[in-house]
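Hi P.,

Sorry for the delay on this. The queue was packed all week, but I finally got your sequence through. Input first:
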Amino acid sequence: MHLNELLGHRVTDAAGHDIGGVADVRLVQDGPLQPSMQAALRIDGLIVVEKKSTRLLGYERHVGPALIRWLVHRRLGNVCYLPWADITRISDGVVETRTGRDDLKPLEDMARY
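Then the structure:
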């Protein structure tokens, strides 16, 4: 599976309740050293939006004017981070997770790096 194939997948919890859609993939560069002398990338988690899976413009985080951030959050609903370790299955356009919506960390609360 290619990473871009995950975009737009619906995310459901263990009980089958809809959490939202995959809007982005968060990568961390801490894998084994590659021939290019850079560490390999690994998937750290998914960015899930409540209302619609759409392109993120950065305003869902800590940047930009408050009014624009408010408008973006109004359109997207909650924007959360789903750790890769919490995913139990990916199939037929659905990502299943063992955690519920209330257990996901809001993207705004995550450290910037």
